[in-house]
Amino acid sequence: MEKLPKIALPLIAVLIGLVVLLSKSAVTVDSGEAGVLYKTFGGGVVTDSPPLGEGFHVIAPWNKVFIYEVRQQELFEKMKVLSSNGLEIQIDASAWYEPVYNDLGNLHQSLGQNYLQRVIQPAIRSAARSVVGRYTPEQLYSSKRDAIQDEIYLETKKILEKQYVQLNEVLVRDVTLPNTIKDAIERKLKQEQESLEYEFRLVTAAKEAEKVIIEAQGKADANKILSASLTDKILQDKGIEATIKLAESPNSKVIVIGSGDSGMPIILGNQ
To answer: Across the strands, what pairs with 255?
Structure first.
């Protein structure tokens, strides 16, 4: 019984050492994350093999694992940039990004865990300044928002190509102009709209007038042709045809032949 404590103490020490060793050797990678292995006595950051995936891993206690989120993440930026004519414009934009999974070791080695501040933010700010500087405030306000969104995305993506980061999308959420510039643009757009409406009314009225003239000319031409075709001979023949039809009618009438103008018959009814 007296020897039991002497045996138990080393066992307890060994167990404690094993627990400490196991705690330093066991690594759990959560969902949506990956781990970069750092070998203290084996060349440092492991870049020639995939990162540690989700789940439980056992490593040498003298090594380290750096955890990265590998899901798509969002960066929201409020940027003040200058337009082509030097006016200050505020752009609210979001960038969707994620680290390139198989290059996570290279990302850790070259940029570290704060790669967002080191490369992504400077890249999107630089691209926004470059793109917005090509446009006037009026273009940014009215029709070019989709264009600048696409251009910022392409320029940012080009900057990040060799930075082990994947840019999925850039969204321009808002373009804010100084109030004086915004009011002036709105007045100009309103005037342009009113001018377009006035021009449309003028064109419509001109087309209606042209239509009336064409119709009147057509009627005049038709009457002219008809008048030219109605000779005395034709009128006499038409009168004779009408007299014959009336004579055949059972209604009471008196027909005086040759008493009308140009020898046309006069028809006297029973009224």
So the answer is: 267
- Residue 52 DSSP code: B
Name the phi and psi angles at 13, rounded to 5.
Answer: -65, -40
Q: Which residues fall within 8 angstroms of residue 173, CB to CB, at 6 or more apart?
A: 92, 93, 94
Q: Distance between CA atoms of 99 and 115, rounded to whole angstroms?
A: 9
| Residue 14: pLDDT over 60 | no
pLDDT of residue 128: 92
User: How does pLDDT run across 152-191, given as a tens digit for each residue?
Assistant: 999 999 999 889 999 999 999 888 886 666 566 556 655 5
Burial (CB count within 10 angstroms: exposed 0-12, middle 13-18, buried 19+), residue 123: buried
Q: Which two tokens stand for residue 50?
A: 């995939």
Whether the CB-CB separation of 43 and 26 falls below 8 Å is answered with: no
Over 80: is that where the pLDDT of 129 sits?
yes
CA dihedral 102, 103, 108, 113 (to 10 degrees): -70
Q: Which residues of 141-175 are buried (b: 16+ CB within 10 A; e: fewer)?
A: beebbeebbebbbebbbebbeebbbbbeebebeeb
